[in-house]
Amino acid sequence: MTNRKLSRRDALRAGALGTVGLAAGAGGLSLPALGQGPAAQDTTRGSHHDMMTVGQLAPGSFDPTGFLARFDAGEVSRLSSGQVLREYELVAEDREIEVAPGVFYPAWTYNGQVPGPTIRCTEGDRLRIRFTNKGRHAHSIHFHGIHPANMDGAFEPVHPGRSFVYEFDAEPFGLHLYHCHTVPIKRHIHKGLYGAFIVDPREGRPPANEMVMVMNAFDTNFDNENEVYAVNTVAFHYQKHPIRIRRHELNRVYLVNVTEFDLLNSFHIHGNLYRLYRTGTDLQRFEYTDMVALAQGERAILEFTYKHTGPFMFHAHQSEFAELGWTGVFLVQEALHA
Amino acid sequence: MPELGTPPAIGREPAPPLAPVPPRRDGLPLWFTGLGPLVLLAALVLAFLRFGPVGVFRAVFPPVEELTVERIRLPAPGVMEVSVVNGGPEAVTIAQVMVDDANWVHSVDGSRRVERLERRTVRIPYPWVEGEPHTVTVVTNTGLTFSADVAVATQSPPVDARYLGTFALLGIYAGVIPVFIGLLWLPFVRSVDRKWIDFFLSLTLGLLVFLGVDALEEALETSASVAGAYQGTALVVLGLLGTPLVIGAIGEWRARVKGARSPLWVAALIAFGIGLHNLGEGLAIGTSYATGEIALGTFLVVGFLLHNTTEGLGIVTPLAGERPRLPTLVILGAVAGLPTVAGAWIGGFTYSPVWTTIFFAVGAGAIAVVVFELWKLFARRTPAGLLAPLNAAGVLAGMLIMYATGLLVTA
Q1: Contacts of B294 in chain A (CB under 8 A)
Q2: Each residue's pLDDT tens digit, B156-187
Q3: How far apart are CA A166 and CA B254, in angstroms?
Q4: Average pLDDT in chain A
């Protein structure tokens, strides 16, 4: 059961079998017969239904399905200059979250959820994010993008009970992210303080079925290695609850990697390829592929249309991540005919 | 005929009787003074549980969880059975199971909440690979993980009537018969010179020292895998020191009743100590067999046989000056050899590191008693005792024999 040096007892164990053979010969028993258990039945089973967590999340838990297309556009108004002003409220709070059925993780969250709300705006908007720290440690928000140094969230930790207002213009368009930048950064990120930050181009993108997927992972036993991998927190959620999409309909995935501890995470799609717009900052150039690897903090916009109906897996192509929860299914259904 | 085991003069001067002291009467009844502190203690515990700072501890500190994987069986292709015990201070809830870093479906024979000292068996339909290692990890509801390895995956043989029969035969071949062969040296040791009896006795002592150290080492090694609540090291200490106390007290009582320590008593002690040692070995063998860890090695059987034959010699030497009846010899041989069978049976059906630790520790303690008895015997028999050249050579030879046969079994 455990690895250890060969001791005298091990040798005696080994010797014992020899003796069993001796005894068996004398007693009319055959050793091979002893080794036969119930008929070999299912070494070759390998159904994806077996490689799975058991049970369901507790009622009222974070719902990754609902999270996919929930965008926070903020409180919209106009400045005297005519510029659009979007105001957001983000609150850091400590909360225990369920990362796999029955497995609870003491997270640090933005607005009580991991990932935090997806902040969405249009290029050129003025953003005003009121941040309140209700946690027990200092936190901050660091947005990726172009902004003044004092709005960067790196050097101004917000202490428990304090607030801070981040204000800057949204630029450039693309898919960004925000996360806590308080030291130790590794812990502040893997505990759950991150979210997607979408800046739409002024002219917009083609209409599509949009989904936000934040590739994240959880080190539940705090040994600096992840035990649970997922998109949007809950292991195997989209395998147990496939994402229903329509044939011939354009799908757009906003993919962000915040996985801590591992160098890379990846996104592979079955039965299809996607247009890969790295960081979403260019509307023209794309790569046509079915596999992209992203380092921590990297993100990409993926656009694809399914030609066939049926269940198609999507998952990290690091098999280990896939088997520890980062696996989902697109269930492609017949298009609705108008 | 050389004499042996001459009754020592135990005639002790009885201590002068103490003058009877009349019990003091403080006006308090005896039962009150005796039970009073206990009642107070109970009240304190209740008050602490009810009003004490337990709640504070619970709120501030995360639960200390401990789940020990006691064994992993592979009863059939595509099936793993994992036995776990909660040896920690708090209940543990099994949330998920991973095999080789992959989440896997599984079932638990009972509630997923495992109370303190409770056991569960987790059944996993996992397509394990013959001859390769696997790691099983249990994830609790707080996200803590407890892992155990299967060193080399092999189908665990079923434990059934055939298994029982085979191990009875194994015990008889490898445990009992060699001991009896050793017993056949009785006529030989009866007819040699007294100094050569001393030599064989010291040889026995050497064998026993080796076996005792081996048993202690096994006890300590197994104790490391005992669930925390069972306090493995404390079990070793209990067995190692408790056994000599019990055997010593029984011996003292016998000496009072019968007036002497008979050589048969020494022989019985030796048989008892060796029997416990072999019980531990049997447990280990049975467990390895049931978990499929045993590998074939015909050559090693020879070493096993030699080991046990020397054990028989150890039992019979103190009886050189006696005329033990045949049934007595049979009983002695059975006491020393048959526990291998019992151990193998127990180990095959239900292995627990706790019991294995206890048996090895008690065996080590019993052997220590025998070594001490033999030491005293030598002190009475010859002025130089064990340090007479031939005797010292005997002890050394005994240890060397064990070492040499040990080389055979580890080859």
Answers
A1: 13-14, 16-17, 20
A2: 777 778 878 877 776 677 677 887 888 788 88
A3: 89
A4: 87
Tell me the one-letter amino acid at A123: E
- Given an 8 Å threshold on Cβ–Cβ distance, is A1 in contact with B149? yes
Residue B71 with chain A: CB contacts under 8 Å: 1
Of A143, A330, A141, A306, the closest CA to residue A231 belongs to: A330
Cis peptide before B178 (omega within 30 of 0): no
Smallest CA-to-CA distance from A199 within A213, A178, A214 is with A178
Do the Cβ atoms of A42 and B78 come within 8 Å?
yes
Convert B241-263 to b/e letters by CB count within 10 Å (16 or more is b): eebbeebeeebeeebeeeeebbb
Stretch A236-259: mean pLDDT: 96
Tokens at A90, concatenated: 């983000």
Range B27-36 average pLDDT: 82
- Find chain B residues with C-beta within 8 A of A324's C-beta: 98, 101-103
Shortest alpha-carbon distance between residue A190 and chain B (Å): 14
Helix axes B232-258, B263-290, angle to 10 degrees: 150
- pTM value? 0.73
Give the gap in angstroms from C-alpha B103 to the nearest C-alpha of chain A.
5
> Which letter, b or e, does each residue of B44-72 get, where b requires 16 or more Cβ atoms within 10 Å of its Cβ?
eeeeeeeeeeeeeeeeeeeeebbbbbbbb
Q: Please indicate whether, in this complex, the C-beta atoms of A53 and B158 are within 8 angstroms of each other.
A: no
With a pLDDT cut of 70, the percent of chain A lying above it is 86
Question: Which of B71, B163, B285 lies nearest to residue A1, judging by beta carbons?
Answer: B71
Give the per-residue pLDDT at B370.
78
Q: What residues in A contact B175, CB-CB < 8 Å? A: none
Quickly tell me which residue has 């036993």 as its tokens. Answer: A221
Check CB contact under 8 Å for A23 and B173.
yes
**Cβ separation B69–A43 shorter than 8 A:** no
Percent of chain A with pLDDT over 90: 79
pLDDT of B218 over the 50 cut? yes
Residue A263 sits at φ, ψ, to 5 deg, of -65, -40
Q: Determine, for residues B170 and A220 on separate chains, whether the beta-carbon distance falls below 8 Å.
A: no
User: Quick one: pLDDT at residue A12?
Assistant: 40
Nearest CA in chain B to A3: B151
Task: Give the pLDDT of residue B5.
Answer: 46
Residue pairs between chains A and B whose CB atoms are closer than 8 Å: 213
Q: Is the alpha carbon torsion for A206, A209, A210, A216 positive or negative?
A: negative
Nearest-Cα distance to chain A for B390, in Å, is 29
- Distance (Å) from the alpha carbon of A226 to chain B's nearest alpha carbon: 10
Helix axes B389-410, B298-316, angle to 10 degrees: 150
* Angle, helices A8-27/B298-316, rounded to nearest 10 degrees: 100
Q: The tokens of B191 are what?
A: 């007819």
Tell whether the torsion through CA atoms of B196, B198, B204 and B210 is positive or negative. negative
Find the mean pLDDT for residues A64-75: 96
What string of DSSP letters covers A39-103? PP--TT---TTTSS--S-PPTT---HHHHTT-EE--EEEE-TTS-EEEEEEEEEEEEEEEEETTE
CA distance B149 to B134: 6
Q: Which whole-number Å values give the CA distances from A169 to A125, A146, A199, B56, in the listed order?
A: 6, 8, 10, 48
Of residues A15, A8, A33, the one with CA closest to residue B175: A15
The one-letter code for the residue type at A334 is E
Side-by-side strand order, sheet with B134-140: B113-114, B92-99, B134-140, B145-150
Quick one: pLDDT at residue A275? Answer: 98
Dihedral sign from CA coordinates of B229, B232, B234, B239:
positive
Specify the pLDDT at position A264.
96
More confident residue, B85 or B179: B85
**What's the Rg (C-alpha) of chain B?**
27
